[in-house]
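The freezer alarm interrupted the setup, so I double-checked each line after restarting. Inputs confirmed:
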Amino acid sequence: MTDTRDEGLILDPRYDKDGLITAVATDQATGEMLMLAHMNAEALALTVETGIAHFWSRSRQALWKKGETSGHALHVEDIRIDCDQDAIWLIVRPHGPACHTGRRACFYRRIVGDRLEWVDASER
Amino acid sequence: MTDTRDEGLILDPRYDKDGLITAVATDQATGEMLMLAHMNAEALALTVETGIAHFWSRSRQALWKKGETSGHALHVEDIRIDCDQDAIWLIVRPHGPACHTGRRACFYRRIVGDRLEWVDASER
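Predicted 3D structure, all chains:
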């Protein structure tokens, strides 16, 4: 199914019933997947306007300027949207660890069978 | 907030109220973000077991083995899960275009202000 959302140049994000769109951030320098979070319309607008990643915290039900307390902001170099406009890809320069655990990125474990394994830093 | 989901090696995906978890796929060779979709427990189990990406189609409300009709399967090289186990990262070898529009990847437009722009193939 292809419609105008797929082929046009009109920004028309497809927010879910909670008013959110999924956003992923990758490191511009390494390509590493840093984190996945959600944005409401305000967070997306602020991200576009300021060049600093803003999200919507579902747990806190609040606008979340990443790094506001930690200092670990994500500086946005490029913002992409997918075919049906229900996903955002941020290409960023991270200032410090992106993960709340203090790690550079959130995806530090792999699934192997029915267990997890730590990913070596060298593999990231 | 750090809990056992963050620091353990027990696979315990945090499915949402619809029984789904978000999954993104990147190209192993280029690092390009290919697509974002969703998995239920069965899709995740089949992906782990077969090494071929399976998703849950929310529009069709059906298990979706990507490439089953198009032939454009994603061969999974690595499966990562994030800190709070509510997001999956597939590192894949795509066989053919990942996007339903026939493009290599779904993120072929960037957000610039309140408009979209096409991304040059050379920038991807």
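Quick read of the result. The beta strands of chain A are 21-27, 33-39, 54-57, 62-65, 74-81, 87-94, 109-112, 115-118.
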